[in-house]
Amino acid sequence: METFQLLSGSGVHFNKSKYEKDVRLFTKAKPRAGHALRDDPSSHEIPAELDFFKYSRNTTGKRKYSSSSGQSVEKRRRIDEEDEEGDDVEEDLNEGSHRQKDSEVSPEKHRVTSKGRDIPEAVDTFEVLQEEYHIPSHIYQNLSKSGYKHPTSIQSHAVPIILKSRDLAAISPTGTGKTLSYLLPVMATLQAPISSIKDVTEFGVRALVIAPTRELAHQIHNECLKLAQGRKWRIVLFSKATAATLADKNVRDKVDVIISTPLRLVASLQAGSLDLRNVRHLILDEADRLLDAEFLSQIQELVAACSHPNVQKVVFSATLPAGAEKVAMDMLRDPIRVVVGLKDTPLPLIQQSLTYVADDQSKLPSLLTYFSKPYNPPVLVFTSTQPRASSLAEELTMNGIPNVDCLHAGMTKKERDDSVSRMRHGQCWILVSTEVMARGMDFKGVREVINYDFPTSIQSYVHRIGRTGRAGREGKAVTFFTDEDAPFLKSIANVILQAGQSVPDWILKLPKPSKMKRKAMGKVKRPEVVNNARKIGRQDAIKRRDMIAGSKRRKAKATGGATQRISEGVKNPRVEEGGSG
Ligand SMILES: Nc1ncnc2c1ncn2[C@@H]1O[C@H](COP(=O)(O)OP(=O)(O)OP(=O)(O)O)[C@@H](O)[C@H]1O
Predict the structure, then answer these.
(1) Is the preceding omega at residue 374 within 30 degrees of 0, hence cis?
(2) What is the rounded CA–CA span in Å between residue 439 and residue 188?
(3) What percent of the chain has pLDDT over 90?
(4) How confident is the model at residue 461 (pLDDT cuts 50, 70, 90)?
C-alpha cells in the first residue's frame, strides 16, 4: 500500500509557474513590433493557438535545453546520450551541422529542419502562396472559408515543396495541420476538375491519398471536399460501393482524387477494375504505419501501380522511426526531408503524466476514481484489444458514467460511423477505443487522453496522446502503468523529457530497456474483460446456463425414450405418475 501511495502520487503534474516559458508560448501575446504579416497589415496578431511559428522565433544556433523547462540540462543530456544507442526517439541536434554542410535552408533553426537539394523557400502567409504559385481562386477562397488564415509551420514549408513537384518526407507533431499541407498543393497543382479541362490526353485518377484506417480516410475526404467546394471536383472515398462504380472506365476517367485504405485499393487493382497509371501525386498519410509489416506489401504494390514517369510521392507522419524512414526514402526521388520540432516528440502543450496502478485489476477502480472527480469531456480512453474496449465501455456505463461510447475495428461500419458522429457532435463524453483511433483522428475538442493499457511503442504513445492538444489547444494525457509495464517506463519518460516536461527521478534511474525488450512493450497478456469479478459472475452464469441446458437435454432424452417405449407398449413410470415428461 505504501508503495502504491508513493508511486501513484508521482505522476507528472503541470506546474505553470515552473514552465512559465512554455506557457507563454501558448498564451495570446501582443504582437511584437516589426512582426507584421506581409500582406495584411491589419492582422498583426496570429491567434496563439494557431501560431505554430512561435517555437522558432528568436531561436538561433543549436537547440538549447532550457533549464527553466523543469529538467536539468545534465539530466536531459544523459537521456539523449542513452538514446544515441539506437532508441527510436531521434536526436536532431546533428541536423544543424548537416544543414550547414549541404547548404540547406532552415529559416527556423532547430524547430523546422529541412534537408535536401534546392529546397523551395518557406512561405509566411497563404497570400504569398497565391501570388507566387497561382493557387486557383476557388481553392484559395475555400481556405479562408474553412477558417484557415495563416499556415502552420509544416504548411509553410511543405506546401511550396509539393507545389514545386518535389518528393517529400515530412515529419511534424500531431495536430499541426499535415492534412492541409498536402491537400492544398495537390489540389492547386491539379488546378481544375478533369471534367472541366479541355484537350485532355491522359485519363485516369490524378491523385491518390492512402491512410491506414477507414475513419481517417473519411476525415481526409471531408477536408478535401472543403477545399473543392464550388467546383465539380470528383473526390472519391474508396469503398465497396465506390469501387464497384469505378469499375466502369468512363466513370473512373472523370475522377480527380481517390482517398482510401490500402486493402480495398489492392483488391480492385488485382481485379483489374482500377488503373493507377495516370496518378501524378501519391500521398502516404501516417507513413510509418503504412510502411510497417502489416501494410508494406500492399503499399509496394500500389506504389508500383502508380507508374507515371512524373509521379510525385510524399509521405507524412508525426513519427518516422529509422527503419520506416529508410523504406520511405528509398521510395522517393531526390527527396526533401522536413522535420518540425523534434522527431517522435509531442508538443509541449500536452500535459503528460504517468500513474501507477499496480496491476490490471486495479485499473478499473483507478479509472472510476478518475471519473468521479471533475474531468473535461470528451475524453479518449485507449485499451489494447477490442474485447477490452467493449468490456471497459460496458463497465463505465454500468457504473453510472454518462455518455460512454466504444469504437473498434470489430464493430460494424454503421456502429463505427455512429460512434464517430456522436463524438463529433459532443454527444459522447468518453470514447473507449483501440489503436484504430490512435492515428490521425481529429476530434478538435478532445481535452484528455487516458492510456488505460500501456502503449505498444513510442510511436503508439505519441499518436495516442496526440488526439489531444491539437491545433494549438491544451491537452492532458494520463498513462496508467502496472508492475508489468515498469520495464518500459524509461522509453515513455524519454518522450516526456523531450517534450520539455519533467518525470520523477526514480524513473530516470530505471535501466534502459534493450531494443529487443522494447518490442515487448505493452504486449503483456491481459484478460478480455477488465473486471475479473464480472468475469466470475459471467462464468457462473455460463455454468448455470450449461447445467440447465444439460438437464433439459437429459429430460428430453428421457421423454423421447419414454415416448418410444410407450409406443412400443412399455410402461413408463414417470408418465404414469402424471408427469409432463
Ligand atoms: N492553417 C491552419 N489554421 C488553423 N487550423 C488549422 C490549420 N491547418 C490545420 N488546422 C486544423 O488543425 C487540426 C489538426 O489538423 P490535422 O488533422 O491535419 O493534423 P495532423 O498534423 O495531420 O495530425 P495527426 O498527426 O494527428 O494526423 C484540424 O482541426 C485542422 O482543421
Answers:
(1) no
(2) 26
(3) 62
(4) very high
Interval between CA 469 and ligand 1 midpoint (Å): 11
Look at the block and give the residue holding cell 459522447. 428
3-state DSSP call for residue 137? helix
Q: For residue 332, what is its C-alpha cell?
A: 522517393
pLDDT in tens, 320-354: 999 999 999 999 999 999 999 988 899 888 999 99
Nearest one of 449, 452, 474, 453 to 463, comparing CA atoms: 449
Residue 440 CA, closest ligand 1 atom number: 27
CA distance 338 to 170: 5
CA separation for the pair 329, 170 (Å, rounded): 11
Specify the pTM: 0.76
Distance 149 CA to ligand 1 centre (A): 13
Give counts: helices (H), strands (E), the chain. 24, 14
CB 176 less than 6 A from any atom of ligand 1: yes
Burial 86-111 (b: 16+ CB within 10 A, else e): ebbbbbbeebbeebeeeebbbebbbb
Query: In whole angstroms, what is the distance from residue 173 CA to residue 177 CA?
Result: 9
Rg (CA), the chain: 28
Residue 486: Cβ-neighbour burial (10 angstroms; 0-12, 13-18, 19+): middle
Q: Is the CB of 50 under 6 A from ligand 1?
A: yes
- pLDDT: is 31 or 505 the higher one? 505
Give the pLDDT band (50/70/90) at residue 522. Answer: confident
Ligand 1 pocket, residue 442 CB under 6 Å: yes
| Grid cell for residue 227 | 477545399
Residue written as cell 478533369? Answer: 194
- Residue type (1 letter), 402: P
